[in-house]
Amino acid sequence: MDRETLKRALENADLTNYEAEAYLTLVDYGRLPAVDVAKKSDIPTSQVYDTLRSLESKGFVETIDHDRLHAEPSDPVDILTHLRERGELFSNAAEELEERWDQPDLSDHRVGVVKHADTVLEHTRNQIREAEIGIEVALTADQFESLQAELTEAAERGVVVHVAVYYEPGLEDLSEDWDRTGQGIEIHVVKIPGPFLAVLDRTQTFFAPNSRSEEDYGILINDNILSFINHWYFQTCLWYSWDPLLPDQQTPKTYISLKEFIRDVSTIYFDGAEVAVTVAGIDTETRERREITGTVTDIYYPNVFVNESPSLERLSTYSIIWVDTGSEEVSVGGWGAVFEEFEAQKITLEAVSFEHADQA
After folding, report:
1. Are 210 and 194 in contact (CB under 8 A)?
2. Do 59 and 125 belong together in one domain?
3. Which parts of the sequence belong to the Transcription regulator TrmB C-terminal domain (predicted)?
4. Distances from the Cα of 175 to the Cαs of 148, 165, 179, 198, in angstroms?
């Protein structure tokens, strides 16, 4: 490497032009009076003293005051370490810039692939801040702690948050420090390892393999059909089968899945309870968002079980409820409803009463 290239490298390591020139001059000649440093370089004499003092403050030279100021280069061990760290920083920055440049823009693409799982986590964090309806996320304890602030803020603004945390030794003690009191947030503990998965507002999915994968990558999805498939994977493999970290909250309780609502309330409904609900969603005819409040008047799915909660398999084909608002009876379907009058996005169980059943 020629001297000029070496000088540019030092300038990239936080030295000024004069500082790099002075340091290389001292490396070439050894200890010199300050005035000689100026003579053997292109540094003005008026600037050389400030330049040497600055280099000393950065650890590149040592100065000695005799009858006049002398300077000599410092032991290069720390300097070499600094340069190597800077080189690693620049290399990492280049890789990150390359990845950001290559990253897909989800506003223009349905599916994109990124090189690092951490990138998926950051995309998820940003989109959690924009979520309006529901969040389903499966992740490790460390990943949950990384996203906890955003998830809590989402729950506080009315977003339903379902968190499936993969079990690890000491999880019970670790979770004592988690804020688990926010309305709208539930945590289940999954006893098998799995991927990072987040399904947001039924339209976006973020995926990254777990630590056992031989490759580090991530998938970003902006598509409601593919998100529906991942929602079912979350529901069947990461949610229904596993116990909550805390007992289920009392009413009002909000669901983002009609099928989960039916599983929870069908037995008490067929036992004579009056079930009051508020349903937020989309009018399937006008495609406008609206909200209805009333009582459930009927629940249907193939081969209805009156005395026990239906299996997820039975609900997977077709399920529907009817809600009497006082002025009309509205048929309510789940995600992707076509034949019903209303597609439910959030179902809030407001109250359960057995008053009429007792009177009967």
Report:
1. yes
2. no
3. 111-351
4. 12, 10, 8, 20
Instruction: Determine, yes or no, domain membership for 83.
Output: no
CATH number of the structural domain spanning residue 209 = 3.30.870.10
Residue 41 DSSP symbol:
S
Q: DSSP assignment of 68-91, as one string?
A: SEEEEEPPTHHHHHHHHHHHHHHH
Q: Which of 77, 94, 114 is the last residue of a domain?
A: 77
In angstroms, what CA-CA distances link 338 with 1, 285, 316?
A: 70, 9, 15
Q: Are residues 27 and 130 in the same domain?
A: no
Backbone dihedral region of 340: left (phi > 0), alpha (psi from -120 to 50 degrees) or beta? beta
How far apart, in Å, are the Cα atoms of 91 and each of 80, 119, 161, 309?
Answer: 16, 18, 38, 57
Q: Report how far residue 40's alpha carbon sits from residue 34's, in angstroms, rounded to the nearest whole number.
A: 10
Q: Which domain holds residue 215?
A: 104-239
Q: Residue 360 has what pLDDT? A: 46
CA distance 98 to 175: 37
Residue range 127-147: average pLDDT?
Answer: 94
Q: Which tokens hold the place of 8?
A: 């540019």
Residue with tokens 């300077």: 71
Asked which of 87-96, 149-158, 321-330 is least confident by mean pLDDT, the reply is 87-96
